[in-house]
Write a structure and sequence with these properties.
The protein has 214 residues and is an alpha/beta fold. It has 2 domains: 136 residues, HAD superfamily/HAD-like (Rossmann fold); 67 residues, DNA polymerase, domain 1. Helices cover 43% and strands 12% of the residues. It is built from 9 helices and 6 strands; from the N terminus they run βαααααβαβαβαββα. It has a 6-stranded parallel β-sheet with strand order 3-2-1-4-5-6. Helix 6 links the parallel strand 2 and strand 3. The longest helix is centred in the middle third of the chain and has 19 residues. 44% of the residues are buried. Bound molecules: 6-O-phosphono-beta-D-glucopyranose and magnesium ion (MG). The site of 6-O-phosphono-beta-D-glucopyranose has 19 residues, from helix 1 and helix 3.
């Protein structure tokens, strides 16, 4: 019997994945580095400096640490401008129902995001109170695909990883859940999320009990 479910934020609960994409695209193209949806797929779930590193490597660029920090700040300023007007209406369809249904099944509900903006986004969406435990980039040292963020949430809940379910839209996120020893539910493309135990196209009509029977 599962006792907890731990959700990723960006791309699962809300479409901030789109805003990360737009902000990285602007930065990359400003540096002369080609950027498209396919390349962006590999950035999903990757933390800020890790994402920047992938873009710089793609462009064969190797700026010093100070310049890297400046570029990361520039992307984050753009991103924060894009998310500044978000409201409760930006919660993805089915997400609130999925959170409530999980609680109704007696599960603890957690959030595992490697975003330093996770707290701000939860506040903008007014959904902080839907979670028993929230872990973000400020609590961990290693980003996804390392399992640290999912293990941190499980530990704070006092629940064994094997009794937890993780929900992710990114391939590295699914890897993190599996490395944590949890059941992985992917949200999105079953080809991209092939390592997940189950994949759903979105959280619309999310029926955990039915999914666990399949
Ligand atoms: C993840 C996103 O949740 O957070 C990534 O999927 C993003 O795209 C990462 O780079 C870090 O976010 P932030 O807000 O700390 O730059
Ligand atoms: Mg995500």
């Amino acid at each position: 019997m599962y006792r907890a479910i731990i959700f990723d934020l960006d791309g699962v609960i809300t479409d901030t994945a789109r805003y990360h994409y737009l902000a990285w695209k602007r930065l990359a193209e400003g540096l002369g580095v080609p950027f498209d949806e396919a390349f962006n797929e590999g950035l999903k779930g990757v933390d800020r400096m890790g994402s920047l590193d992938l873009i710089l490597r793609r462009g064969g660029l190797d700026p010093d640490v100070a310049e890297r920090l400046r570029l990361a700040d520039q992307k984050n300023d753009d991103y924060r401008q894009l998310v500044a007007t978000m409201t409760r209406a930006d919660v993805l369809p089915g997400a609130l129902e999925a959170l409530e249904a999980a609680r109704g099944l007696g599960l603890k509900v957690g959030l595992a995001s490697v975003s330093k903006n996770a707290g701000t986004i939860l506040e903008r969406l007014e959904i902080t109170s839907f979670f028993d435990v929230v872990a973000d980039a400020n609590l961990i040292r290693r980003g996804k695909p390392d399992p640290e963020i999912f293990l941190t949430v499980a530990e704070q809940m006092g629940i064994a990883p094997a009794d937890c379910i993780g929900v992710e839209d990114a391939a590295v996120g699914v890897q993190a859940i599996k490395s944590a020893g949890m059941l992985a539910i992917g949200v999105g493309d079953p080809v991209i999320l092939a390592q997940a135990d189950r994949v759903v196209p979105s959280l619309v009509g999310f029926d955990l009990a039915a999914l666990l029977k399949t």
